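ok posting inputs for the sodium ion job
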Amino acid sequence: ADRVRWQMAMSFPSTLKALADTAPWVAEQIHTMSGGTMTLQVFEPGTLVKGTEVFDAVSQGKIDSGYVWAGYEFGKLPVSPLFGGQPFGLTPWQMSAFMLEKGGQEMMEEIYAPHNIMPIFCGVVSAEAAGWFSFPLEGLDEVDGLRIRFAGMGGQVLQKMGAEVTVLPASELFEALEKGVIDATEFSMPTVDEQLGFYKVVKYYHLPGWHQQSTSQYLYVNLDKWNGLDETQQGILRTACTAGVAKSMARAEGLQGAVLNKFTDELGVEAVTLPDEILRELKITTDEVMAEYSEKDADFARVWEAMTAFQDENRQWAEKGYLPAGWMSRVDGE
Amino acid sequence: MDETPAYSESAFNDDGTGPDGLPAEHRMLPRTRISNAIDRFIMRIGNAASWIWVVLIAGIFTNVTMRYVFGRATVWLEELQLYFYAIGFIIGLSYAITWNRHVRVDALADRWSARTRAWIELLGMVFLLLPFAIAITTEAVPYLMTSIQLNEASSSPGGLPYTWILKSFIVWGFVLIILAALSRLLRCTALLFDRPRPL
Amino acid sequence: MFEYEIIVICLLLTFMGLIFTGFPLAWVLGGVSFMYLTVSLVLLNVFNIDTYFLDDWNDFAIIVDRIWAQMQNWVLVALPMFIFMGLMLDRSGVADKLMANFTKLFRGLRGGLALTVIVIGVLLAASTGIVGASVVLLSMLALPPMMEARYSKTLAAGVVASSGTLGILIPPSIMLVIMADQLSLPVGDLFMGAVFPGLILGVLYVSYVVIAAMVRPDMAPAPERAEEVTWWDVLGVVWSIVPPLLLILAVLGSIFAGIATPTEASGIGALGATVLAAANRRLNLEVLRRVCRETMLTTSFIFGIFLGATAFALVMRSLGGDEFIGGLLEGLPFPPWGVVAFILFIAFVAGFFLDWLEISLIILPLVAPVVEGLGFDLVWFTVLFATTLQTSFLTPPVGFSLFYLKGVAPPGITIGHIYKGVVPFVLLQITGIILVFEFEDLVLWLPEQMY
Ligand code: NA
Ligand code: NA
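and the output
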């Protein structure tokens, strides 16, 4: 193609810091690198399709491309949330290694090809938090009957542990939490949670985000459109996306600390660390859920196996090569 | 005098239908045998589907009671409410055509003759409504087929399987819209060209 | 100007022309969209004219995904539920009694019925954000008694249409939820920020009705037999107000007690109205059948408009309509307040033709960074913007409240009456917007107190 002018539909509004503002940046790089011959026009969620429907629309060629979180297509492609972020899964740099160095990208291309989509790893951001609660979660028994809004596989894990999981739409979340229709909600990482103002209605912020240690986003390109590009143009998209991975990781890590400090120091939020007892049970149940999915879906099994294999291989290094979490507070005697 | 004979107010049944059991209006288009058959069909489906609002109320009440009184949340029940609501409005679109309830800006049209209005209705059906509805129906079929092929299910924990069932209602709804539009189209041609024969 | 921008202008003009043919609005919107798709494809393929993103049949196919999105929109479940509630109230005899008693009480007071409509409008607004439902409900309750009391049709139509529109601004409000999502602002701040602007509009409406009734007695005539108001009348009002009050309490109460979400509360309201009808011995299978059928028809004509509007917006957007409007806003030679005023002006004018959702989708993301960069508070601006868009429900020719009203009004009330009737209320809206513009604290004070 001589000139490329594509729609790029978003799954999150680009006003969300770190989570979604990499997309316009990537589009800009593409425009610059191509000397202005390639334009990916950002379309905010809802302007063309809802964020959750981008997969469908790109796959059927109704729109040319999208910058999205992998996982909304879970109902059609059960393996997809593994590429978006996994319970007890990979951290941002591990995910980058998996996708770029350990065959993740190739695996994903293979799986998405029958759906007429070329997915390109294009951004990864920090861990999510485990959610906003109206009370601190202290023991395993409190999980039973907990009314919590929790989407995705993490929700399934909690459901299995006896929590009453709902998937109230984001539009009703704030009021539901404020008025006590639900006890808690999972949402995103600190920057995004700050923008949405959950700290105004509930004060217990739970960490770590066991259900999603990193969140990855992709440039989905309609396969026919991708095949219509020449090598230079394909190279530009791949390079811009790899730059997007670096940019988003840097941006997300750069911002979270200050926001968490602001929560605890200025806004009266208590940062609650989930007790080991609960984390252990969550991990056990996660393994069960992942085994169930692996049994039902061959692609899921393949990808999850590759991910956990890399996680195991990397484990000794991650635990010994880096200073252990919390050592500084310990040494300081805090 | 080209005004079509219309039912007088007294001939309206109390529920807004005429003596033939079909929706009555003032200054009405003539009826034809085919259009009556179509209208009866749509009325039957619409009447049956209208009970869905009672079902929806029951669903919401059950969900609220379950959560508030028994502390139980059921994702599939939350989703089922969306099913009722969506089926209700999408089937209702054709029903509202048959009842002639879609809103018109008729400030000017009120002063025009029945023939002029019938011409506009005819042209509107042919150039606006029918192409639009046919285009959507045509596009909704592959959309539905993809969902069936992938055996699409809800992406929520504990959500409903077989999403295609609900997606199929886009097709049903718009097929009914096309039918309802054809019925009105025939009633316009009956007035303008005596084809098909007005009853 | 680009070629496709000329097509956008033609699209708008064609649409404007066609709605006055009297063909249903929903299908004009949908049909014109499809027509322009065809036209654009011909222009592109035959004359090689640049049609921006509208260059393939497939571009229109997104409409199916958008219909699906509407089918998955949980918040809109409240629409049929509140309509059901209104129809059931109407059938239960509760509404008749309420209106009859209010009429008795206000027989000495000019414009009393209109004032009742405004008060009930504000109460409804606090329990729902669904304008279609409020307008329909108020029309059914209030138009017949107002006609009977020989109110001017324009005043009656105007007061019902505008009072029903308050719901989109006064929380809970779907408009503010969507704006919060777009701009990543806290919903709670926007909700609290909109409370005073909403109430101020209510007060402005009240003042207008009171003054109009004094200056032009024929608009809201005093009843012929102006008997003294007795204590029995007051008691009658109190007694008749109990059931609907219980209902509003059930709706609002279930929200505030954390029993139900606002959407679920609409279902509780529908159930409550049914219970009231049963308590009045008015409920039977026939009544239920009729209410269900009428709910179906009313809900569907409203969704028909939604559907047409989404197609129209899609085609306009694909033709570069967003950038076209955005371009108008860029490089303005105004001082900061002038920029804000100009943005509001554009939103106001766009409101003549487009609905609030499309306008917010087009303009908000574009202007928010600009406004923030000029040093304004984004919560203030968003509430101001929302107040402007609330007005779009009332501005002819495409004012959704006007269409909803037209859809259920008695035959004597024409679209002409409705168009004329809203004019003074649109002026009141502008007054409200200016007040909020001048006094930032009207928006910002309450959120600061609450959180
Ligand atoms: Na409201
Ligand atoms: Na308007």
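notes: The pocket of sodium ion (ligand 2) is lined by residues C 351-352, 392, 395, 398-399 (CB under 6 Å). The two ends of chain A are 61 Å apart (CA to CA).
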